[in-house]
Amino acid sequence: MPALTPTTLLRRRCRALILICAIAAAPLLNAQTSITYQLSIPPDVARSQVVAPGQTGDFGFAVTSTDSNSGTALVSGMFESATAVLNEYTFVAADPARCALPQLQTPSILERIVFSAGPLATGESLTCRYRVTRSITSINDLGFRACDPAAAGYIFCGNTLRLGSLPDLSLSVSQVLPTPQDSTEPVFRLQLTNHSAHDVARRGVATSCREFNGGMFDPVPYVLESNFPGGCAVDNGEGCLNFTGQSYESFGFGFGAVPAGGSTSCLVRLRHHAGQLSTPPTDLYLIDYDVSIFNSLVALSNGGHAFDPDLANDRATLELTGAPNAIPMSAGGLLTMILSLGLVGLAALRWKAG
Fold first, then answer.
1. Which residues contact 58 (CB under 8 A, 6 or more apart)?
2. What is the 3-state secondary structure (H, E, C) of 40-78?
3. CA 286/CA 192 separation, integer angstroms
4. How does pLDDT run across 66-122, given as a tens digit for each residue?
5. Cβ atoms < 10 Å from Cβ of 54
6. Which residues fall within 8 angstroms of residue 337, CB to CB, at 6 or more apart?
7. Pair 308, 167: CB distance under 8 Å
């Protein structure tokens, strides 16, 4: 499956233009109160760690001072989970004299998690390591991005740490063949599979942002609908950014509860615009509910939220594998066709014999 283009990634992440602008414009905490430094994550620190309630994982980072003065490096990161989730996890530093416990700080409008490392002399490097224990009563996964100070606005910072249940869900799309007899348009089955040992409360799926009702940039000759028996519940799609002359939109559908190790499915149907029968493929992907725009949080049946660790199988492509407008025959029609072919064949034999 091809990788998402930067344009698609930007559309997926920009559900709220005002929020994006505010984050990008927020002053960087590190640039104001910290020495300058380079940040890296040690190779032995797993970015995603399954940690059950009562169990322990680990986190670590390395900083190298690039400042002309000695001082403390403040390593901050944007939360992917709710900030209150930090109370469900306890950090213990291997070197508490130089590696402080994480704190919450609120520069401008955005709360961040902050680790103090140092003091550091010019050019000096320090690796801070922590044991992270999850509370026995915890129901939420913890996620944040430990950001390099050069990461503009912390929007695309890639040093992500996720601890917790990490339930893996996957999305698959298949065309229903033969086409149901009550439809002259292609019908597709969307299936959500829960590969984890955790019950999931709900999950959404959305199309990529395209000009489904016409436009100049990415027009699509059809829309998606589900107002028929077995159809998917309609839900919110992605929030699409539209500037002058653009008409991007996204269709959204919702899955209900999925038990551990189980799956659920529903149907959607294409409806072509008049006279436009081509069917270019459209991407669909799992989306989140009531959470930050930068993550893959899954709503669990116990009321908590957890991260889906494998985003590659959260995406599928809706594309034809059969004729776009094949109208299936009834049993009577099929019998009529067989008899007609038989008569044609018999007539041909008689002609040859004559």
1. 45, 49, 129, 130, 131, 132
2. ECCCCCCCEEECCCCCEEEEEEEEEECCCCCEEEEEEEE
3. 9
4. 999 999 999 888 888 888 899 999 999 999 999 999 988 765 456 778 899 999 999
5. 11
6. 329
7. yes
Cα–Cα nearest to 228, from 196, 166, 265, 183: 183
Q: How many CB atoms lie within 10 A of CB 84?
A: 10
**What whole-number distance in Å separates Cα of residue 203 and Cα of residue 171?**
10
- Element containing residue 224 per DSSP (H, E): strand 222-225
For residue 344, pLDDT beyond 70? no
> How many alpha carbons lie under 13 Å from residue 68 in its C-beta half-sphere?
0
Which of the two residues, 154 and 141, has the higher pLDDT score?
141
Whether residue 208 contacts residue 11, with contact meaning beta carbons closer than 8 Å, is answered with yes
Count Cβ atoms within 10 A of the Cβ of residue 301 and give its class: 0-12 exposed, 13-18 middle, 19 or more buried. Answer: middle
Three-class secondary structure of residue 161 per DSSP:
strand
How far is residue 97 CA from its own chain's centroid? 39
Longest dimension (CA), the chain: 107
